[in-house]
Amino acid sequence: MRTSPNDPVDAVLAEGLKNLWYPICPSEFVGERPVSLRRLGRKFVFWRDQTTGKLHALEDHCPHRGAPLSMGIALGDRIACGYHGVQVRADGVVTSVPGSPGCKLEGAKATRSFHVTEAAGAIFLYNSSENVDTPPPLVLPEELTNDQEYSSFLCYTEWGGDYRYVIDNVMDPMHGTFLHKQSHSMAEGDATATFGVRETDTGFVFEKEGQRGVNFDWTEWADTGIHWMRLAIPYPKTGGPGGSFTIIGSYTPIVPNVAAVFHWRVRKLVPGWQRDTWRFLYRNRLEARHWAVLEQDRVVLELMEPDANQREILYQHDMGIVRLRRHVRKLAQAQLDEQEEKAA
């Protein structure tokens, strides 16, 4: 997606809105050794405390000379820069300067620190505009927090396109009828439809009128301190127990035109044989089909021109996309207004 240099709102959205939670990577990406990941317009270093396993995150920038802290050594809740040994604590405070003990750098909060947590097999980071002592809680949909009633698999991939094109794709139920028509039940239902918008407490549902439980018939967008999307695809009995197959999605910019794509595949299952049966069936029969569906989406989005969204002719099926784009632009404008007020 091509960002206009004269549009500050678009520039904010390109890097991701501030003061929101974002998924960063699957949990297994980060161990005790520091890991550098670029997300949300900056580079982060993540590591775990060797004793407690607690996760930490800093900007991957040593305050001394700017060397990447990820090349250093993790020391519990601190990381020692590999360039000159400067030690930075997880809260961004420099605790030791071995080459010049007692210098003014010691004791200074000189590196940006970020709050991180783990849930549903992924690492989440609070993208604060400035350092905060306590972030708001990470509020995920019930499908990812209620292990007694739901079972899920995290599907993570990285696509060569703007993360906003991924959001547009999910906010477009009609593409399933055409692009994915040979996948599972996506050939069912009407190829012609009228859509409507239904408000929720946390966002809205964009849905086909007069058709439910037939195909990819609706998409929900929600803001619970993290932006996420939900959809359901009806399954035949051969798809195993659990009724409709739910997908929860959340998307994070890596760099311009590269997106971190998170999809949790979920079924509503009681513990016991239903859960075990579905998980076995998913791994052995269904997962490959779902990757094939995602691959169809990826190919289309990566072949779209960066300025495709600036040369669109939209129609009624695109109401959800227009609604969501307008909403997030308002959020970005409010963020810019707040920055200006603080500067004044």
TrEMBL record:
Keyword set includes Iron-sulfur: yes
Residues in Rieske domain copies: 21-125
Alphabetical UniProt keywords: 2Fe-2S, Dioxygenase, Iron, Iron-sulfur, Metal-binding, Oxidoreductase
SUPFAM superfamilies: Bet v1-like, ISP domain
Transmembrane segments: none
InterPro entries in the record: Cholesterol_7-desaturase, Rieske_2Fe-2S, Rieske_2Fe-2S_sf, VanA_C_cat
Entry GO MF terms: 2 iron, 2 sulfur cluster binding; dioxygenase activity; metal ion binding
Keyword flag Metal-binding: yes
Pfam families assigned to the protein according to its UniProt record, in alphabetical order: Rieske, VanA_C
PROSITE patterns cross-referenced by the UniProt entry: RIESKE (PS51296)
PANTHER family, per the entry: 3-KETOSTEROID-9-ALPHA-MONOOXYGENASE, OXYGENASE COMPONENT, IRON-SULFUR DOMAIN CONTAINING PROTEIN
Protein name in the entry: Aromatic ring-hydroxylating dioxygenase subunit alpha
